[in-house]
Write a structure and sequence with these properties.
The chain is mainly α. It is built from 8 helices and no strands. The longest helix has about 40 residues.
């Protein structure tokens, strides 16, 4: 009875709607917040990261096919750098699949996501692949498990670094807005589902 009462005190979602609760939602209890993150890392994060790794592996394979068979890029030095980065991306993403089940730290999950995305970012800056920029921005907001504010910061850095690539600024802005919307929607949905699960256990 006492344990149920303690659990009931910990369960309570996020405060009433405000800009703060939208951009930085938190449970009222710090204990419940810790339990939520532990549950997230055990059940939700592995699925998200598998999808992230799958997308990056498929993207790398498609680009390897283009470089090796279609020979889209004429510059040999850019070809070699691109090949190296794509192979590195394949290796890092496949290795990350072996360790995600053992991750119990939110900080470590952020680091792994960023390491997996790094070759793609370097490839964007070197070869100027415009399509890769939009893919990177969407992935950093949705599947990378990077905090919301850090996602915005990385997207701004990418925007500044790619100004000389003649990227469609309006399209990049729209992709960022879509990414922000999906990021907030996923966060609030997962938190609400967890809260409902906790409440159903009490009943």
């Amino acid at each position: 009875m006492r344990s149920n009462r303690c659990l009931q005190e910990n369960v309570g979602v996020v405060e009433s709607w405000s800009l703060k609760s939208l951009f930085c939602p938190k449970f009222e209890s710090t204990l419940n917040e810790k339990k939520y993150f532990l549950n997230f890392l055990k059940s939700v994060y592995p699925h998200e990261h598998r999808l992230l790794a799958l997308i990056l592996v498929v993207y790398s394979l498609i680009n390897l096919f283009e470089i090796l068979l279609l020979k889209c890029v004429e510059d040999v030095s850019i070809n070699l750098i691109s090949l190296t980065l794509l192979i590195l991306s394949l290796i890092l993403n496949l290795l990350s699949l072996l360790v995600i089940k053992h991750i119990r730290s939110y900080f470590l999950s952020n680091i792994i996501s960023l390491i997996c995305l790094c070759p793609l970012l370097i490839l964007i800056l070197i070869s100027g692949l415009k399509s890769a920029i939009y893919i990177f921005v969407i992935l950093i907001y949705t599947l990378s498990n990077v905090s919301f504010l850090l996602s915005i910061l990385i997207s701004l850095i990418v925007l500044i670094l790619t100004l000389n690539l003649e990227v469609n600024f309006v399209l990049l802005l729209i992709v960022n807005l879509i990414g922000i919307y999906l990021n907030r929607l996923l966060d609030v949905t997962i938190r609400s589902s967890y809260n409902q699960l906790c409440k159903s256990k009490l009943e």
